[in-house]
Design goal:
Layout lengths: L1 E3 L1 H4 L12 E3 L15 H17 L4
Antiparallel strand pairs: 1-2
């Protein structure tokens, strides 16, 4: 899940402002598909990190 607009709604050190916050849900990821990787935890972590960045609108 990626979240957009939270900084505009509640900036660090600032007060709450009314601003749209968007939630973006990605496709399910089956952890079993990483079972044969040499480092399954590292492999799924990399995929999840990239997906969250994409869903939140951040560039890699």
């Amino acid at each position: 899940m990626g979240i957009r607009g939270t900084f505009e709604a509640w900036p660090r050190g600032g007060g709450f402002r009314f601003h749209p916050v968007e939630l973006h849900f990605g496709k399910p990821i089956d952890p079993k598909s990483f079972a044969q990787a040499s480092d399954p935890y590292g492999a799924i972590t990399n995929v999840l990190r990239k997906e969250v960045l994409m869903l939140s609108g951040d560039n890699l």
